[in-house]
Write a structure and sequence with these properties.
By secondary structure, this protein is of the alpha/beta class. 45% of the residues lie in helices and 20% in strands. β1, α1 and β2 form a beta-alpha-beta unit.
Length: 301
């Protein structure tokens, strides 16, 4: 019998919580006394102001709820859940975004694939838009469409050839849906809270896992939703996430020499400064330099 701890970090996520948590708690394996799989739910609320924590407590009383007095960020909050799994003998953790949910049977397919293929550090289902109409736009960028000889996302979804593959290899996958073996977690470690408090921790963790010889994969037979709902970001947030955090991820990647990553970032800085028409890109460039000691420490860990 395998035990999975589903970790959900909430921050003003009330519009999605019912679909998110119900997709786990309505599964036959949710706290089931028999069967091959048991799922428990661990929710960390990052000081929501919309009643998310109270909703979880009243509607999903079986979930373990941690109420934070401050916004811990994505990494630290998920690390609380992953450490709980390490301390309480779980076999797997499943990182589930608050704006995401699983198709019935998806967890069972993911765990079965993980049991058959222990070389994979992370397994993700197909991450799709609401109503399973198409691939999530960010997920579509990393999913290996080229291997099928097709460019449209709908062809990938419906392709009998691709759906028949048990696992498709990728270099990284976003942590809206992540199944991770606790055994691998012990070796690779938790998210880095210092360099990647809000963004980039999933890419960095995938890089670290691959550096230790593990693979990252997609299980096409398992499907799930990541509902981004056309949310927009202002310029400052885009600079922080796309330029600053993206550059940190590249510099911290232990699979590529740091000097080579830095050579890429030099023209990348000019491109982003022109794109965003903002001097804040150059401020972020110098901020990167201040993080070099922490980056070198992480690369060597």
């Amino acid at each position: 019998m395998k035990r999975v701890l589903v970790i959900v970090v909430t921050y003003n996520g009330l519009p999605w919580l019912d679909r998110c948590l119900s997709s786990v708690t309505t599964s036959p394996s949710f706290q089931a006394p028999t069967g091959n799989l048991i799922q428990d739910v661990f929710v960390v609320d990052n000081d929501s102001t919309d009643g998310s924590a109270d909703y979880v407590k009243s509607h999903f009383p079986a979930a373990k709820l941690v109420r934070s007095a401050e916004n811990l960020g994505f990494s630290k909050a998920n690390n609380l859940g992953m450490q709980y799994a390490l301390d309480h003998g779980y076999d797997y953790v499943y990182l589930l975004n608050q704006d995401a949910w699983l198709e019935p049977g998806a967890m069972e397919k993911l765990v079965a694939a993980a049991e058959s293929h222990p070389a994979y550090a992370v397994l993700s289902p197909l991450q799709m838009t609401d109503a399973f109409k198409d691939l999530d736009r960010q997920f579509a960028k990393i999913y290996p469409r080229a291997a099928l000889g097709r460019k449209d996302n709908s062809s990938v979804i419906s392709s009998g050839v691709e759906r028949s593959r048990e696992i498709s290899d990728v270099k990284r996958v976003m942590a809206a849906h992540w199944l991770v073996s606790v055994k691998v977690l012990k070796e690779v470690g938790l998210f880095n809270e210092n360099l990647f408090p809000f963004y980039g921790q999933d890419d960095n963790w995938c890089h670290r896992a691959r550096h230790k010889g593990y693979k990252i994969g997609i299980v096409p037979q398992a499907r799930a939703v990541h509902d981004r709902a056309q949310r927009k970001e202002d310029k400052d947030r885009l600079i922080f996430r796309n330029y600053y955090t993206g550059s940190l991820v590249r510099l911290a990647n232990p699979n590529v020499p740091m000097w080579l990553s830095y050579l890429y970032i030099l023209p990348f800085t000019l491109v982003k400064a022109v794109k965003y028409r903002s001097l804040k890109v150059f401020t972020s460039f110098f901020r990167l330099h201040a993080q070099f000691p922490a980056i070198r420490t992480l690369r060597s860990s």
